[in-house]
Each structure stands twice: as structure tokens, then as C-alpha cells.
Amino acid sequence: MQQPLIWLVEDEISIAETLIYMLSQEGFAVKAFERGLPALEEARRQAPALAILDVGLPDISGFELCRQLLTQHPSLPVLFLTARSDEVDKLLGLEMGADDYVAKPFSPREVCARVRTILRRMQKSTLPSAIVRIGHFELNDPAAQINWCGEPLILTRYEFLLLKTLLHAPGRVFSRQQLMDKVWGEDGDSFDRTVDTHIKTLRAKLRAVNADLSPISTHRGLGYSLGLV
Q1: Buried b (16+ CB within 10 A) or exposed e, 36-50
Q2: Could you tell me the pLDDT band of residue 82, with boundaries at 50, 70 and 90?
Q3: Element (H, E) at 147
Q4: Starting from the edge strand earliest in sequence, which strands make up the sheet with 151-152, in order?
Q5: How far apart are CA 29 and CA 7, in angstroms?
Q6: DSSP conformation class of 173
Q7: Alpha-carbon distance 65 to 35, whole Å?
């Protein structure tokens, strides 16, 4: 598994070396900068998983560095390191878009813990939603619910499974047998006309919500497909 890349922009060598060692021990790849401007130049080519910025840099303030980095990479997580403990400075950094703020002197283990917390939070925020939007449909698989044109459809178990199958492959033509296999499986009481009956009831429920749209198409001799109208 690829190590998350952390950028450390810190001009105090002793602090930088300690943090590089601790972050590396925690499984991170670290790229260190003693100045802010080289980090901005590097940001034109790539972005790290997270940036740790010292506020008091010799060439550009950490606040300004943060602002410019977030202009290039708006979702970049930022952790500030600073010798200042003034609440106004802390609020300024957070209002600029930083995710956290650690005042010197600090424990390197605390910084590593803050980094992990921020990255976990970012990972959770990027998890896919349970609701998948497909044209005018919204599929909530865990809740076994499908909305059409903003209205929830009241579906039987097999109507839900049939429509979900069509939604997962819009434009694909499914034969009756393919739909039987995917929806009814080994159900011995089902037969080909079961598909036709359920398609008919599905169309009626869709028309009841929006009579002007007809997303399910019949392909004579081939089967059925769903179009994203």
C-alpha cells in the first residue's frame, strides 16, 4: 500500500528532523521544505495527502502559504505549527481553511495523532453516498428505496430488484432470461411472462409519478432496457 505523502514546511531543523522521524515511523512518506516558496512551486506539480505548515517562515508567512496552497488545491488538509498561542492567530488559521493548529512546544506524537485524525476525517468525508443518482432516479440500495422524479416509488421486492438491475446498466438490453436469472434466480415458480408482468406494473408506477417520461424500453425479440431520460 502506498504511504500517504505529508509535506512539512518548517525552518527549524531540529523540529523538522524530529517530526520527519516520527511521521516516518508512523508509516507516512515525508517531503520537507525549509521555506514556503519552494513548496508553492512543488504544488504546481503535485499535492500531498496533508501539509504541515509552520506559521513563522522566513520567506512567506504560513498563513499566506496556506491561502495560496488552498487556491491551487482546495481540498488539501492543513495543520499549522506555531510558536504563537494567541487565540486570534488560531482562529485566523482555521478561518483560512486549516484543519487543525498545534502550538509549540508540542509532542511529536501528538502531531502524528492529529495527522491521523485529519486524514481519517477526510477519508470518511469522501466515502460514496448510499444514494446513487441515475438520470431522474435515486437509488438507495441499503434502504431498498428508489425515487423517480423526486418521488418515492412503492415497490414490491421483485419490482425493486428488477428496476435496480436495469438502473445498474442504463442502456443495456437485458433478455427476459437474463432478468430472470438476476432477479428471480432459482425461483422455480417463476417463468418468462413474470418479467413482462413486472415491467408492466413498473411502467404504471412510473407513469403515475410522471406521465410524460417513459424510461423503460421494449426491444422486440430481445428484451428490455432503461434509458436516462
Answers
A1: beebbeebeeebbbb
A2: confident
A3: strand 145-148
A4: 131-134, 137-140, 145-148, 151-152
A5: 9
A6: P
A7: 10
